[in-house]
Design a protein that fits this description.
165 residues; alpha+beta; 4-stranded antiparallel beta sheet; two-stranded antiparallel ribbon; 6 strands; elongated; WH-like_DNA-bd_sf
Length: 165
Amino acid sequence: MGQEKRRRELLETIRASRKPLSGALLAGKCEVSRQVIVQDIAALREEGYGIISTNRGYLLQVQRVFQVCHSDQQIEDELKLIVDLGGIVVDVFVRHEVYGRIWAELNVNSPRRAETFCREIREGKSSPLKNITSGVHFHTVSAASEETLDQIRQALAERGYLMEE
């Protein structure tokens, strides 16, 4: 099997799995060494696929954009809600009427990171990007499955943060 075909097969195998797949299992399936699998995974990541390595194997992260609105005091609750359910808050962006899309990377992946981010906002290092659009903003959220993203969506809606587009 050629390199490109093997990489496409790896991607589809990981995408179809609901659980992490070990490098050894993938190597056996493709009849190559684990080192070749590691190289293939690195190449797929460079192509933009959100494949993550866990202690149990490889998973494909999925992403969804949520439009939300809340107060400054609710930022920490929103971020912790997402990470507690297994999500990673990749970024925040707003759609400004004059400037267009204004974006910032966040990568909030733990309650501790959410606390640090909110402490820096409270200490005045900067103000939340959402404030230039009356609280309305967007988060790209990454997770291991669509089911996790569905749970995050439901929880955001229950708290009143989610805005329907």
